[in-house]
Amino acid sequence: MYPIRPDRIGGMDRFFWAFDKAVKANGKRIVWFFPVASAFEHYEKKGLQVEFIPDLIFESGVIRKLRNDYAVSVCICHFVAYNTRYVSQLKSQVGKLFFVDHMSRPRIPKSLKYRIWHYLKGIINGRHVDGVIAVSDYVKDRISKELGGRWLAKSHTIHNGVDFELYQTSASFNDSMAELFAIGYLTIDKGFQDLIQAAYIVTGK
Question: What pTM value is reported for the model?
């Protein structure tokens, strides 16, 4: 359910392009399903094979496409809810089914009724999901707490957009020259409190 917009090219777009290139380099075919877009030339220029599905019928439309037009060995879903009635139908059309969980969680918890209902659905839908990629350990922890402990074994963390090999530690620190810039929603899972605490420890201020 990621909208394609040529006037807003971000990290997810670049990730999709790199992933598409890597899959093809391994001799595999890859097809992308997106909500209907008015302009997508920037994706066509990258050589991506894209199918567009109307927003209102996205899940059912993808399932119909898989059933009628494709034989899919692995399906990876981004920005698609994985604790819904569509999961079993989607799994029936593919070999392996994975989801990527990018979503932050609200600080104010849902009602007890909703949490019980969500948990029970997780027991049912968990049978159809082969794995969930969480973009942080916080999200991975929330998955098991929200849907049940059996989800822990099939949940894995790959940090979103961070290649740790690109960074080096330094034994020295000049606080008169250091500048930090961070942007994101002010929610606990974004880690701003950790950044502030780290700056306090390093500078003693």
Answer: 0.78
